[in-house]
Design brief:
Shape: elongated
Strand content: 5-15%
Helix content: 55-70%
Oligomer: single chain
Strand order of the largest sheet: 1-8-7-6
Low-confidence stretches: none
Largest sheet: 4 strands, mixed
Mean pLDDT: 87
Length: 594
C-alpha cells in the first residue's frame, strides 16, 4: 500500500534535492532560528544594561520627580565604554572603523568586497560594545549590530556546510534579514531592507526566499519572548484626502534636505575631526573624545540619548511642539555623529528614523496649523517621515515603507509612503548614508562573473568565428614533413585527423618549437605523438562555452565543426574573437543606455 507513496516521495526528493531555492529555504529556517535567539539575547542584554545605567545609576527615570538624579553618570559611563570599545577594536578589529558607517555598512562591505566573509569575532565584539554604548546613552540603534550578528551567523553556517561564495553571500543577507525582522517586529520589512540596502538602485533578488523565511522564523521567536506589543502605542492612521499628497511631496523635499544635513554632519565629524584624532592619538582616544562630548551633551539634553523611541511616540501622538521637534532634529543628528563618528558601536537605522520622524512632524504639524481641514492627522507625517528619510539616505524605498506599515500595524498610509519615498529617493540621488553601497549588480564584484557569463551566453560562435579553408594534418605525418608544412603557412594551430578522417587532436606550434629542427627525430616522431587532445565547437554553441574550452585547453584557436558531421571542419575561432565580441557587445549596451 505504501509503494506508490514511496515512489512519489522518492521522485519528489530526486527533483528537488538539487534545487537552490529548496536548499536555501531550509538554511533560511536554520539561520532564522539562531538569528532570532541572538536578537533575543541582544534585547535582554540591552534592556537590563540600559535600565541599570540610565535608571538605576543615573536616575533618568527620576528626572523631574523627587528621586535622586545623577546626570554625571552618563558621561562617566560613556567614557568607560569608549575605553573598553577602543581597547577591543584596536586589539582585534583595527580596520573595522575605516570606510564603514555601522554594522549594516560592514555587512554591505563584506558582501561586495570580501566574498561574504565576516570574521566571527567582529559581530561578537561589535554586538557587546553596541549594547554598552546604547545602554550608556550613546545615540545609536540596535539594528546595525543585530544585522551584523545575523550576517555573521549566516557566514559561519556557510562554512560549516561547505557552501559556495555565492551561497555564502546569500546566507549572510539571510542572517541579517532575520536579525532586522526580529528586532523591529517587522518580518517583511526586515527581509526587504536587508536585500535592498546593499545597492542604490537594485536589490538581491536571489536572497528573497531565504531572507523572508529567516525573518519570519526569527520574528516568531522574538514574538514568543517579548510578545506582539508594537514599538509605538499610536492610533491607526488613514489617508483620506488626495489634497494631502501636496504636503507629503513637501515632506519628501524636507526629508531630502535633513538627510543631506544628517549625512554631511556625520561625515564631517568622522573624517574631519575624529579621523585626525585617530591619526595622532590612536583609535581609543578618538572614541574617548566622542564619548566624553556625547556624555556631557546628553547630560544636559537627555532627549538625544540612546535610540529615542519614546520621543518618536510623543511626536506621533502630538505631545511635542514644532519647535521642540525642530531642535531634536538637529540635536539627534549631532548626537549620532558624535557617537558613531568617533567609532563607538551601534546602528544608524534607529537614529535615522528618529530624525526622519521629527522632520515629518515639523511638516505635518506646521501644515495642520494652517490647513487643519486638509491635514487632519499630523501625527501620520511622523510615520511617513521615518520611512521617507531612511529611503532617501539609504537609497532603499521599499523596505522602510513596509517596515513602517508593520510598525504602525496597518497600511492606511501606503499611498503617501510610496509617493514620499519615491520623491525623496530621486531628490537624494547623490546622498548615501552607507559608504559601501554600489549602484547595482553590474557595479558589484559579487556579480562580475554573472555579468560576464550573461553577456557571453547571449552570443554564439557562428557570429564571430572565421569560416574558410583550414590546414588539417594527418596523424602519420613525420616531423620532417611537418617542418615543411609550417614553413609554408602562418597558422599556429592545426586540427589533426586519423586515417579514417576523424578529428583526434590539435597540434600547437608551441608544443613542437623545441624539437622542430632536431634532424635526428625527423623520421622518428609523427604528428599523432605531438598533438593535444581534440577540442571542437559548433556554430550554435554560446561564447561562454567557447571561453571555458579556451581556458581548459589553453589553445589560441579551436576548430568549428558541423552539428551533424562532427569531423567536417567549417573554420576556426580565435580566443581573441571571444574577448572582442564581449567588448563590442558591452559597448553596445552602454550606448543603448545613454
Amino acid at each position: 500500500m505504501l509503494g506508490p507513496f514511496k515512489r512519489v516521495w522518492q521522485e519528489y526528493l530526486r527533483v528537488y534535492q538539487n534545487v537552490t531555492y529548496v536548499r536555501m529555504l531550509v538554511l533560511g529556517i536554520l539561520v532564522g532560528i539562531f538569528a532570532g535567539l541572538v536578537a533575543i539575547l541582544f534585547r535582554f542584554g540591552l534592556d537590563s544594561s540600559q535600565d541599570f545605567i540610565q535608571n538605576h545609576l543615573a536616575g533618568l527615570s527620576a528626572h523631574g520627580s523627587n528621586g535622586e538624579y545623577r546626570p554625571w553618570v552618563i558621561p562617566v559611563a560613556l567614557v568607560t565604554v569608549a575605553f573598553i570599545t577602543g581597547f577591543l577594536v584596536d586589539k582585534f578589529l583595527p580596520d573595522s572603523i575605516h570606510g564603514v558607517t555601522d554594522g549594516t555598512d560592514a555587512m554591505i562591505k563584506a558582501f561586495h568586497q570580501n566574498k561574504g566573509e565576516i570574521k566571527p569575532k567582529a559581530p561578537i565584539i561589535k554586538g557587546i560594545t553596541s549594547i554598552l554604548t546604547i545602554a550608556a546613552g550613546g545615540s545609536a540603534g540596535q539594528e546595525g549590530p543585530v544585522s551584523q550578528l545575523g550576517a555573521g551567523l549566516g557566514c559561519w553556517f556557510s562554512h560549516k556546510f561547505g557552501l559556495s561564495t555565492k551561497e555564502r553571500r546569500i546566507l549572510m543577507l539571510t542572517g541579517a534579514a532575520g536579525g532586522l525582522g526580529a528586532i523591529f517586529l517587522a518580518p517583511l520589512g526586515g527581509a526587504m531592507t536587508a536585500i535592498e540596502v546593499i545597492y542604490k538602485e537594485d536589490f538581491e533578488s536571489e536572497a528573497i526566499v531565504s531572507a523572508v523565511t529567516s525573518s519570519v522564523v526569527a520574528y516568531s521567536l522574538f514574538f514568543i519572548a517579548f510578545g506582539s506589543k508594537p514599538m509605538f502605542e499610536i492610533p491607526e492612521f488613514h489617508f483620506n484626502d488626495v489634497r494631502e499628497l501636496l504636503f507629503y511631496a513637501i515632506l519628501s523635499v524636507a526629508c531630502a534636505l535633513s538627510g543631506w544635513f544628517y549625512v554631511r554632519t556625520f561625515h564631517f565629524l568622522k573624517y574631519s575631526v575624529f579621523e585626525k584624532i585617530r591619526q595622532r592619538l590612536g583609535i581609543m582616544w578618538a572614541m574617548v573624545a566622542g564619548g566624553l562630548i556625547m556624555g556631557v551633551y546628553g547630560m544636559f539634553y537627555p532627549e538625544v540619548l540612546s535610540s529615542g523611541h519614546h520621543g518618536l511616540e510623543q511626536a506621533i501622538n502630538g505631545n511635542l511642539p514644532v519647535i521642540t521637534m525642530l531642535v531634536l532634529l538637529f540635536g539627534k543628528t549631532l548626537a549620532t555623529s558624535l557617537t558613531l563618528g568617533s567609532g563607538l558601536s551601534g546602528g544608524m537605522f534607529a537614529p535615522a528614523l528618529f530624525v526622519g520622524g521629527m522632520t515629518g512632524g515639523v511638516v505635518g504639524f506646521t501644515a495642520n496649523s494652517f490647513y487643519p481641514h486638509i491635514v487632519s492627522h499630523p501625527g501620520s507625517y511622523v510615520l511617513v517621515g521615518m520611512a521617507t528619510f531612511f529611503a532617501g539616505v539609504a537609497n532603499a524605498p521599499i523596505g522602510p515603507l513596509i517596515m513602517v506599515c508593520e510598525l504602525s500595524k496597518g497600511y492606511g498610509l501606503l499611498a503617501p509612503l510610496m509617493l514620499s519615498g519615491a520623491f525623496c529617493v530621486v531628490i537624494s540621488r547623490k546622498v548615501s548614508l552607507y559608504e559601501n553601497q554600489v549602484e547595482n549588480k553590474f557595479e558589484s564584484p559579487a556579480h562580475i562573473v554573472d555579468s560576464t557569463v550573461n553577456i557571453l551566453e547571449n552570443l554564439q560562435v557562428k557570429e564571430v568565428y572565421q569560416r574558410g579553408r583550414v590546414t588539417i594534418l594527418e596523424e602519420s605525418i613525420t616531423l620532417k614533413a611537418l617542418t615543411n608544412i609550417i614553413t609554408g603557412t602562418n597558422e599556429f594551430f592545426f586540427p589533426v585527423k586519423n586515417i579514417a578522417g576523424e578529428i583526434t587532436g590539435i597540434l600547437s606550434i608551441n608544443d613542437v618549437r623545441n624539437i622542430l629542427y632536431e634532424e635526428s627525430l625527423f623520421d622518428l616522431v609523427v604528428v599523432g605523438d605531438l598533438a593535444r587532445q581534440s577540442v571542437t565547437l559548433q556554430e550554435d554553441d554560446d561564447l561562454y562555452t567557447a571561453l571555458v574550452k579556451f581556458v581548459d585547453s589553453d589553445l589560441g584557436q579551436i576548430p568549428v565543426v558541423q552539428e551533424d558531421k562532427q569531423n567536417e571542419i567549417l573554420g576556426l575561432i580565435n580566443r581573441a574573437d571571444v574577448f572582442r565580441a564581449y567588448k563590442n557587445h558591452l559597448s553596445t549596451i552602454h550606448e543603448n543606455e545613454r
